[in-house]
Design goal:
The chain is mainly α. The protein is built from 16 helices and two strands.
């Protein structure tokens, strides 16, 4: 129990789980050709933007070509990582049985290898979302983003660390995926870890060769500006990915949990933990696509293998479910979500923070007499349905 779920009975939580299962079943049973056309259209668009960006950067000595080429390539990399790579690697499109769009064969435009990312993200993060000592994504081992994390003097400059992480985010994630802390804890030796390190270094080398040597070399006299254009495109992608992911996981209102929460946790309780541990970004259809629909982070955490083009349609149903059961549904425009994240990182760079963060979380809870009355009406409606 937490402050946000104290008003719920075991039956309420199981009913929440049943409603969410019904939402999932309805979508997954409807998948078909329209969905296949959607992802193939996104892939064609992404590849077209990448080709356009590469061609424009061949003439990067001319400022308009440099600007348009860098922007086009940056958008292509965002689409590839967010709406395509991230979601393909979650198995969202495995139902198509297309070997080119399958979680076991896709290798994305990212320093982190697909297999290492799937282990730390798909398994560890999505299974143990926001559980201390289980979900390593809480602060990525370098930031204090929750007051229950121990404070160390190195956290004093974590606002600068966070900026640096945003600029090189793909490299930070790749290093994080290596789980070097396993060696520090004595769980693995350096000899056992070296094969993983070599695989990552080979992938990083290929990425650097492609973006900073081969394509710039094709531009001849435009080598240097073309190289800078590739670097700028990767930086655009890194900063955007960092902002989207942090907005979905680290706003002030988002909750974290102790390991005891996992004891005998039912599927319905897992669903509730996902909703309390995630936050959405409000915006246009274009913003949703550019975030890989991770602007619907709550829906993604509930159903990580559901094709992302359905999140916008089910979001109102999930929001209404939270309203009826008196649960918070954390959502806001990007400036508000990211501003809150940056404020929290700055506050938690100093010791403490429990009282301040807890107070802001409690203000976001839709509990009280209104919620209790809503629950009573819900139970009354549920009785004839059960009969």
């Amino acid at each position: 129990m937490t402050a946000s779920t104290a008003h719920l009975s075991v039956e309420d939580i199981e009913r929440i789980g049943s409603e969410l299962e019904a939402i999932r079943d309805e979508v997954m049973s409807s998948l078909g050709e329209a969905d296949a056309r959607y992802i193939r259209r996104v892939i064609r668009t992404q590849r077209g933007l990448e080709i356009a960006g590469r061609i424009l950067l061949l003439g990067a000595l001319f400022p308009p070509a440099f600007v348009l080429g860098s922007a086009s390539l940056g958008v292509a990399k965002i689409l590839e990582n967010m709406e395509i790579g991230h979601n393909v690697l979650h198995g969202q499109w495995d139902w198509m049985r297309d070997p080119e769009i399958h979680s076991t064969t896709w290798e994305w435009d990212h320093v982190s290898t697909a297999s290492s990312w799937q282990q730390t993200h798909n398994y560890l993060h999505h299974t143990y979302t926001n559980v201390h000592n289980k979900d390593r994504d809480i602060g990525y081992n370098v930031l204090r983003v929750d007051p229950d994390q121990p404070w160390h003097p190195t956290h004093l400059w974590q606002t600068v660390t966070n900026l640096g992480l945003a600029l090189i985010f793909e490299y930070g994630i790749a290093a994080f995926d290596l789980e070097i802390d396993q060696v520090q804890r004595g769980e693995k030796t350096w000899a056992e870890k070296m094969p993983e390190i070599r695989v990552m270094l080979r992938k990083a080398g290929k990425q650097a060769l492609k973006d900073y040597v081969v394509f710039p070399a094709l531009s001849g006299p435009s080598f240097v500006p073309a190289l800078v254009g590739g670097l700028l495109a990767n930086t655009i992608r890194n900063v955007w990915s960092h902002a989207v992911i942090f907005c979905g996981h680290f706003p002030v209102e988002v909750e974290t949990f102790d390991e005891e929460r996992l004891e005998n946790e039912s599927q319905a309780e897992w669903y509730v933990r996902q909703m309390l541990g995630s936050a959405n970004i409000e915006g246009s259809a274009l913003l949703h696509i550019m975030t890989g629909n991770l602007s619907h982070q709550i829906e993604h955490h509930l159903f990580p293998d559901m094709p992302s083009n359905h999140y916008a349609a089910i979001a109102p149903k999930v929001r209404d479910l939270c309203r009826r059961y008196g649960l918070p549904y954390h959502s806001g425009p990007m400036w508000k979500q990211y501003g809150g994240v940056l404020w929290k990182i700055a506050r938690l760079s100093f010791p403490g923070g429990h009282e301040t963060i807890d107070k802001r979380r409690r203000r976001a809870l839709p509990v009280g007499r209104k919620a209790a009355a809503t629950l009573r009406r819900l139970r009354q409606r549920a009785v004839p349905q059960a009969a």
